[in-house]
Automatic annotation (TrEMBL):
Protein's UniProt name: Pirin C-terminal domain-containing protein
Region called Disordered, residue ranges: 42-67
Residue ranges occupied by any Pirin C-terminal domain in the UniProt entry: 1-37
Source organism of this protein record: Streptosporangium longisporum
Coiled coil: none
InterPro entries, sorted: Pirin_C_dom, RmlC_Cupin_sf
Any Pfam family the entry gives: Pirin_C
Length: 67
């Protein structure tokens, strides 16, 4: 899938399949993914969801639009 358009005005953190506003939010999303919460399932999928990789040892930084 290819998405396009104007960049977000706010600063965001993108890591693996998650988009959030802070490192802490990404940590929470990763935990919820691992626990099978909040993301739903794909009907008819024959395989288990892929496990998220380990987070980097340094905090993820929010980045914004380049001007």
């Amino acid at each position: 899938m290819l998405l396009g358009g104007e960049p977000f005005e706010e600063r965001i953190v993108m890591w693996w399949n998650f988009v959030g506003r802070s490192h802490e939010e990404i940590v929470r999303f990763r935990r919820e993914w691992a626990e099978g919460e909040a993301f739903g399932t794909v009907p008819g999928a024959g395989a288990a969801p892929l496990p998220a990789p380990e987070l980097p040892l340094t905090p993820l930084k929010a980045r914004g639009r380049r001007r």
